[in-house]
Amino acid sequence: MLAGCGSGKFSAKPGGGRDKTTFRYAMETAPTTLDPAKVQDIATIDLLSNVFEGLVSYNAKNEIVGQIAESWVPSEGGRIWTFTIRKNAKFHNGRQVTADDVKWSFERACGAHFNSPTAANYLQDIVGVKDEMAGKAPGISGIRVIDPSHVEFTLDKSRAYFLGKLTYCCAFILAKEAAGPDQINDIKGAIGTGPFKFDKFAPDQQVELAANKDYYLGAPKVERIVLPIVKESSTRLNLFKQGQLDTLGIDRKDLKVTQADPVLGKQLVFQMRPAVFYVGLSMTNYAPFKDRRVRRAFAMAIDRDRICNKLLEGMPVAHGLTAPGVPGYREDYKGLPYDPEGAKKLLAEAGYPGGKGLPPVQFTFKTTAPDSQHVSEGVESSVRQNIGMTVQLSTMDWTAFLDARNKGKFESYFLSWYADYLDPENFLSLLLTSNSPLNHDGYKNPEFDRLCELGDTTTDEAKRLKYYQDAEDIAIQDAARIPIYYQRDAILISPRVKGLESNLFGNLPRRNVYFGD
Q1: Hey, which CATH number is domain 272-488, 3.40.47.10, 3.30.200.20, 3.10.105.10, 3.40.50.1820?
Q2: CA-CA distance, 97 to 87, in Å (whole number)?
Q3: pTM of the model
Q4: Residue 517: what pLDDT?
Q5: For residue 440, which of 397, 386, 492, 481 has the smallest C-alpha distance?
């Protein structure tokens, strides 16, 4: 799997996990990109967050704190934001970060030719972003460089979630002399300000990061991070047992044996994540799903309890689209019930009694993801047995899956949405409003759009959460998406690992990690 350095590949030496200078954890798939303005998946975001930074980020208490920005001041009711750049923030090449770098990085991400899959979703509240992305303007008029240490953002409206959006990767600040205007495809272009910098990268084999000794908050406590790319969960588990990995996320199929192990069981921790795993239904590619009754029948035919408690052995059942830990989440929310008889009646009303007349629906899930396969098979059997609908399962590798999803090619599929920032807007307005670039399934409901717009622009927190909850009710009753479970991670952490910080999103950049005896 990992060959010697002489061939240009990297290796983890036997017993290397006991080296106190190097922190090791595995990636399940190769990084999908090295460019913060292109990344969409959790594993690559975790990697890049050790290398790049934005103006602000979330800390271990799930609070937004300054990163490259040391402070900020809102004005005009939150429509204008002025940020002060840290004077000691430097890129990995030693150059000081300036307000001009901030403006350039945002304009690069939003450039019409660059075609970022995320910038429109997270940055379009800034005045001028839409024009630049459409090729109608040479830059973003709503970003103004006041002086080298101060940059000002003007929004189209007051947006309570604006700071949260700036924590996402497409708002990371890059060194323009290294990155250039096009996608970063080599670690030479991946110059950030984070506590670690890229050192070596062998595609599909291993990533190595080196400590940024000049980091503005102080040098990391380990000298290196090594991330072997290990696609098989059993291999990853064996590497942890051998001391080759210092922490490891456990696949569901390995959980029982891990819990039963007298040594590993004591190293296992569980952490909830602000994530919803769901079934997507395309109202564009599968004509019957245009009928609300067919979508509701599909949703009401799925036995979530069996999937979560038997197939996945105890994952938290999801009934809503907003995840635990996100303001507005309702623990007692019931959503659409499991009701096979009600589902049959709805399908008959729609003109498909017993599923007759319905063409088979293609259902796609990610290859090499056992949980995805379990859920997909559970959905298929539920729908076939309860409403007589034929579901044809198919798989794709992760990169191809993301590309197909972005292009709206699926009829139905299984996927997850992890919060980018802790606000219900991130689960509702961003994903399901009629004009959202992330609305890949063609869902449209004017009342849902109206309530989301009120939630997006209202400054009173209690009122805006109620708007979002009412919008969520509509989307659930419309079966715009079908929530299946909330994410709860099972993680192995070696007892020698100290200083590993985490929050709802996962592990923070590993600057404070060190090793005990």
Answers
A1: 3.10.105.10
A2: 8
A3: 0.81
A4: 74
A5: 481
